[in-house]
TrEMBL record:
Species this chain originates from: Mixta gaviniae
Any Pfam family matching the protein: Slp
Keywords: Signal
Name by which UniProt lists this protein: Slp family lipoprotein
PROSITE patterns in the cross-refs: PROKAR_LIPOPROTEIN
Secretion signal, residue range per the UniProt entry: 1-19
InterPro entries: OMP_Slp
Any GO CC annotation of this UniProt entry: outer membrane
């Protein structure tokens, strides 16, 4: 029971510390306080959202270079609070993101990205041989993410030393905590994350 309480406290402290570090990169902050991120809502009535700022992200599945711009076809995924696509989440739908200038397909194909820009409407296209209606975004900023793995060590005890005050039959104790030990014997876990 005591060990569970200490583990829960350590996880809460970690979450609070990491939560304070969360921020959206400047490249995809956009102009509005909260750009539209609900692609399903936009797909149901794209004409209602024309001119609105949106932020979407996911995996680039196709790159088409045109004169003066590059069109990214993105299989979108839900974004977390720092505008990163949630790894392992199912695709919500696809968008065409039009970026001014030339982007080499080698640099972004199969990469994770987040884009921010104005919704231009929708256009008919195809995925394989199936017809599909793509939401089109005129991109004002984008962020390419790097997929990295990090080793997550098991939670360690907060303090391996303990003080028990005196009781009627015991003078008190100061020393190593006999119930917790120094190290958690659980295995380290490898976690895949997105970084700038």
């Amino acid at each position: 029971m005591r060990k569970n309480l200490i583990n829960a406290s350590a996880m809460l402290l970690t979450a609070l510390l990491l939560g304070g570090c969360v921020s959206v990169p400047d490249s995809v902050k956009g102009r509005s306080a909260m750009p539209q991120q609900d692609l399903l809502r936009v797909m149901n009535a794209p004409q209602l959202y024309v001119g609105q700022e949106a932020r979407f992200g996911g995996k680039v599945v196709k790159v088409t270079n045109l004169n003066g711009r590059t069109r990214l076809e993105i299989a979108t995924q839900p974004l977390d609070e720092s505008a990163r696509p949630r790894l392992g989440a199912a695709s919500v739908g696809r968008i065409w993101a039009d970026v001014n200038g030339f982007i080499d397909p080698v640099d972004v194909t199969n990469q994770m990205v987040t884009v921010v820009g104005t919704i231009k409407g929708s256009e008919k296209g195809e995925i394989g041989k199936a017809s599909y209606t793509f939401v089109v975004v005129d991109v004002t900023g984008y962020q390419r993410w790097r997929v990295q793995q990090q080793v997550m060590m098991p939670t360690q005890p907060i303090d391996p030393w303990i003080w028990y005050g005196p009781t009627r039959h015991h003078p008190g104790y100061w020393g190593p905590n006999p119930w917790m030990g120094y190290y958690n014997s659980g295995p380290a876990q490898v976690q895949t994350i997105l970084t700038e």
